[in-house]
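Re: [ENG-882] Designed sequences occasionally contain unexpected residues at chain ends

Forwarding the minimal case from QA. Structure tokens:
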């Protein structure tokens, strides 16, 4: 790589560098890396509506770099290398590509700030997430939002949830004797839960 004008090169890097306060990817290219250079910029993925817009911007970035810092054999930069990422689940990242589902995930996260934790809990219960609609359909509740710590364990809280939502009737005069912990554990046996996020089995 031959930097023809250091100021212009730095300006290109600055022009394409986005915010690193949230979801972002460090975009470079394999050719520069193979020539022994780290030549890239952080891209704020929230600036793009979808995967295609993201790739189009990378092409513009590479074209601008080719003008101010051409490769040793004057070949155009083509192979994208994603050298680092931050603030989004690892399942959307690889060195060669960023999964197009990342932008669907970010839109849902924008609508519900807990969606990232819901997806993480879903992944712990069912494995890698392929369908966000399925996540939303299976998600029942975040039990800690319903009941404070004074209600005890997740099992006990779910026992109270069942009672308060009419899944079981407990007469008032027996309430102090009812074992909400055991009942909640029995009910959750047919469910999936992780860190207080509860999902239906299907």
């Amino acid at each position: 790589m031959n930097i023809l004008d250091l100021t212009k090169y730095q300006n290109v890097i600055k022009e394409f560098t986005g915010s690193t306060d949230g979801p972002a990817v460090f975009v470079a290219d394999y050719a520069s890396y193979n020539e022994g250079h780290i030549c890239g910029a952080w891209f704020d993925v929230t600036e793009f509506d979808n995967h295609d817009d993201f790739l189009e911007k990378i092409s513009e970035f590479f074209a601008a770099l080719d003008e101010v810092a051409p490769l040793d054999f004057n070949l155009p930069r083509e192979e994208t290398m994603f050298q680092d990422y931050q603030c989004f689940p690892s399942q959307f990242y690889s060195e060669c590509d960023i999964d197009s589902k990342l932008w669907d995930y970010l839109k849902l996260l924008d609508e519900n700030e807990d969606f990232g934790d819901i997806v993480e809990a879903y992944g712990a219960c069912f494995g890698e997430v392929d369908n966000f609609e399925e996540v939303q359909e299976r998600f029942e509740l975040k039990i800690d939002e319903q009941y404070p710590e004074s209600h005890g364990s997740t099992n006990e809280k779910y026992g109270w949830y069942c009672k308060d939502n009419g899944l079981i009737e407990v007469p008032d005069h027996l309430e102090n004797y009812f074992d909400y912990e055991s009942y909640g554990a029995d009910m959750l046996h047919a469910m999936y839960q992780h860190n207080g996020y509860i999902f239906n089995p299907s």
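QA comment: On inspection the terminal residues look reasonable. The domain at 123-128+135-199 is CATH 1.10.10 (Arc Repressor Mutant, subunit A). Proposing we downgrade this to a documentation issue.
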